[in-house]
Amino acid sequence: MNSDVILNQFLLEYQFRIGKDTLTHYLINVRQLLHFTGKSIDSVTKSDILGWLGYLKKKKYKPWTVWGKLTSLKTFFKYCLEEGYIHKNPAETIPFPRIEEKLPYYLSLDQLGKVRELLQGRLEERAILEVLYATGVRISELCAMKKEDINWSERIIHIPKGKYKKGRIVLFTRNCEEHLKRYLDSRRDNQPYVFLSVVLKNRPIDKNTVGSRFRKYSKCLEFKFTPHTIRYTFTAHLAQKGMPLECIQTLLGHEEPQQTRYYARLYNHSRTELYDEYM
């Protein structure tokens, strides 16, 4: 079967399984491999893939980039094998590159306290911080959040479409509830989004606006952090309070093995730090 036809079939099959951007990258990576080898999908061998990965290494591609490209190939050729387009998965036994992983940076309770102090009186900005810290949601999920997603009596928020197009439930604290209610009560509009664009009041706030604000906070406080740092902080602080890793991963909406491993290292590091405080 023609390679373009197979790629289109893969697109149709996976468009409801993974995010649009991720799927786009998968297709780009497969096309790059095919262009490099000059072969059709059913002719690609393990040696071809190893040759392409070696080429990427010589071109100084970062290990995480190569990891991502190999993940794309493994997923795609597994699909091809299942559908009978190929008789053997050429990517199946290829090992992922070794990566020296640095632990993600997260805020201490003292640093978090300084951020809260900085945002005192800024209702919307403080509410954003508290929602990020209490729920561990991704910035894209925060921006898309609607009022109807919030269950105040149960203190839960429904995330209808996460990164991998699967909904989940996240929890929020009484402290978060207090600041979020105070902000929403100050609003004089009927817009459905929890946080609104500063330019178009009928649209949700965008990631660039939130990111820009966090850069300003970093400059004022003289320690760097981003919205995603708060997600790491959420993970580390829950680990230090004794929540099982499996529960944290459910709240984070994680499924991919590399994400699981990455956050597991953060979890273990956080628990060790807690242990050291008592010894």
Automatic annotation (TrEMBL):
Protein name per UniProt: Site-specific recombinase XerD
Output the lineage of the source organism: Bacteria, Bacillati, Bacillota, Bacilli, Bacillales
- Please provide the record's keywords in A-Z order: Cell cycle, Cell division, Chromosome partition, Cytoplasm, DNA integration, DNA recombination, DNA-binding
Q: Does the keyword Lyase apply?
A: no
The Core-binding (CB) domain covers 1-81
Q: Does the keyword Nucleotide-binding apply?
A: no
Q: What is its main location?
A: cytoplasm
Q: Where is the Tyr recombinase domain?
A: 102-279
Annotated localization? Cytoplasm
Give the organism the record lists.
Anoxybacillus andreesenii
Q: Which SUPFAM superfamilies does this chain map to? A: DNA breaking-rejoining enzymes (SSF56349)
